[in-house]
Predict the structure.
Amino acid sequence: MNFTEFRLKARHFFKKNGKLLFIIFLVWAVIFLVNLILKFQPKVLAPSTTYEMHTSVLDSTSSVPTATGSEIEKIIKEYIDCCNEGKYQKAFSMVSEDCRKNEFNDNIEIFMEYVLTKMPTPKTYSIQNYSNMTLGKKKIYIYEVKFFDDYLATGLTGQMYGFTSDRITFYQGDDGLEMNVGNYIYHTNPKRISENEYLKIDVTDRIVNYSIETYTVKFTNKSKYTIVISDNAEADEVVLNLPNEFRNRSEVYSIVLEPGETKDVQMVFKKFVDDGDDSLALSFNLIRVMEQYSGTEDVEDEVIQNEIDNAISKFSMTVDL
Amino acid sequence: MKVRDSGNKLIIFGIVAVIVLSIYAIRLAMANKKPDVSKMTDDEIAIYLNEKIDEMEKEKLSELGERDRMEHYVAEFISSIEKEDYESAYEMLYGDFKTNYFPTLENFKEYVSTKFPKFIAIEHTNIERNGDTYVLWTNFSDSLGSKDSSVEMKFVIKEYDLNDFKMSFSVIL
């Protein structure tokens, strides 16, 4: 191939592929320039910190959406400012209706008492998303808010380092974000019933706080005998069933029904709302229908055992939740 | 015909993109260009050097973890006191803290000269973060004195940005 032939072939090649080559050049030029721009971009230096206000402490992959997080910050600030300034009426009105009713019995004095246990004097605060969960279709954001004295202003002079804290919960309501305080999370009316010829058990109410669940249970003694649900004579008389374990009541007390009696009893179980376990059922493991019952206080073990042995019926009942 | 049109449009778009990116890259390069120190006045050089030192300080701090940064700020405060640069040390204090304990620079100078040793040895024993506020527990002593002279002192620090902070400390009453 002589030079003329090569020249002609090259000319033909460029004539045929010129446009394509120009496009390739343009693409390369864009990539080159973008790289150059990135190189010249001023470095943004920021302090590294472990403090991520809106990222869950329990699950670092779970965060609160930015817009919701900003709104939560504003609400908490307004709420704490109200509490610090003694504007309890306004602070109380910022709390969700559900929380006002179930945690504070719609009573501002109970609310004020709660605020004063957390903030007896004006406090500064810090916010940290603790955990996030879903209830039905509702997303619930749980924050830990710590209240402390303005240490920056005092340098901790003559003071011990300490703080009080609360779990403050947010969820999307019909008119925007709703706020629960006082570790209150949510409330349901299970209306679950279990019944036999002697006894009717009706779980009427369930209040879920951050670390406890409180059940209101209505017992109806349908018989003409005394019925013992719990008197601490046996272990695990009343338990909350979880998928892999069960929990006893945090405070064990006697539940004894006289013939024909109906009684509402509150039962508290320790359970963290964000532990990943669902509460499955309440089990009453040793219900006794007694012909003779003398109680357990100042009564000899022999007598107690004898009465249990002579019970008209012994059975267990479970109410699914 | 349609293919040819879209090819031409692509080329025009590419040329425009290259022109825009080139202008932006040139402007960025100009902004990043190091100033010619030989043409600066002494005052301009001093400002330039201070900016450079501040930049280097920030770069160094950006590589440090929270605890190291807080210890650095405390060391900066102590160093200012040792150098008798009380004004700089006073500047580092939080406004309300100054109002509460040292309303004037003179009050601060007086306190430091009576309560702080000439050469300060400081040992950090613990740190806690509460939101964006840090509390540092330290043992504070005269580096030329005996170990028994050590007293516990707490520093409370709020960091707004790198090398931008305010602090307070437990005042020895």
User: Anything to note?
Assistant: The radius of gyration of chain B is 26 Å.
